[in-house]
Amino acid sequence: MKSNVVTEKMVQQNQKKNNDSLNVKKNNNSPKAKGVKGNRFLITVNVLGSAGPMRFVVNEDDLVSGVIDNSLKTYAREGRLPVLGSDVNDFILHCADVGFDALNPGESIGARGGRNFLLCKKQRQPQMTEARSEMIAKKRSGSWKEWLNKSFNKRILTH
Q1: Domain residues of the chain, as ranges?
Q2: Distances (CA, A) of 7 to 1, 17, 20, 21, 138
Q3: Residue 105's CB: how many other CB atoms inside 10 A?
Q4: C-alpha to C-alpha distance for 20 and 116, rounded to whole angstroms
Q5: Cα-Cα-Cα-Cα dihedral of 14, 19, 25, 27, to 10°?
Q6: What architecture (CATH level 2) is domain 40-121?
Q7: Which among 10, 91, 94, 110 counts the fewest CB atoms within 10 Å?
Q8: What parts of the chain have a pLDDT lower than 50?
């Protein structure tokens, strides 16, 4: 009696395995199962101040921030100069084919249709501190006439 129950369970398990393996084989033919996430294309990234471009393949749905990160890693791996750093937030990516506006880091790389890009370091404005603002105020306090008179007085006294 126990052997019949065990045999029936084994038959059911074998049927499940066969059905699962058939489903897996059917699903492996889809492009998503193979790891392809849409259109892939070759892009060229020029780094401002570097000798030559970098080329690599990206998916159309990849984010601009991911492409910047990939570019910085490739740049560092190849030992290129000048040394840029690795913070993605310090860089902007421009599409060389389609205008001069910087691409949004959350935008997909294929949204504008361009294949040539320019990677630039963001220009940081210096923070205005109290000491810096006082120093600037002191420099502006005198007029050019006072400066001119002081410079002439120094020259006359030295003779």
Answers
A1: 1-34, 40-121
A2: 10, 15, 20, 21, 96
A3: 17
A4: 45
A5: -140
A6: Roll (3.10)
A7: 10
A8: 21-33
